[in-house]
Amino acid sequence: MENVYEVFFFLKYYGGWSFFEAYNLPVGLRKWFAERLSQQLKKESDAMNGGTKGSNSSRPSMPSRPSMPSRPSMPSVKKP
Predict the structure, then answer these.
(1) Which of 3, 13, 25, 49 fits 30 for a cystine, CB–CB 3.0-4.6 Å?
(2) Which of 44, 33, 41 is nearest to 7 (CA)?
(3) Is residue 44 exposed (0-12), middle (13-18) or buried (19+ Cβ within 10 Å)?
């Protein structure tokens, strides 16, 4: 039974599902979504880490952040 709760937690924490959404899914479909989410998270993790350690040369470069204009300062308020 604890394994079922682990799947509920996984779908809720990483997938944004509510407990009731995960609970009301048929068991086979719930397992499929949990497995598919696991695969997607692994792909994203590999992409963020550059895949395997030996393939750093094919690592995609992160785009540079655009320069943002400075925030305007708050106008001073004079007390009466």
Answers:
(1) 25
(2) 33
(3) exposed
What CA–CA distance (Å, rounded) separates 26 from 13? 19
Q: Is 37 exposed, middle or buried (0-12, 13-18, 19+ CB in 10 A)?
A: middle
Question: Does position 71 have pLDDT exceeding 80, yes or no?
Answer: no
Taking only the tens place, the pLDDT of each residue in 12-41 is: 998 898 999 999 999 999 999 999 999 999
Query: CA quadruple 19, 20, 23, 29: dihedral positive or negative?
Result: negative
Residue 4 tokens read as 């079922």
Q: Are 8 and 1 in contact (CB under 8 A)?
A: no
Whether the pLDDT of residue 44 is over 80: the answer is: yes
- The span from the CA of 57 to the CA of 60, in Å, is 8
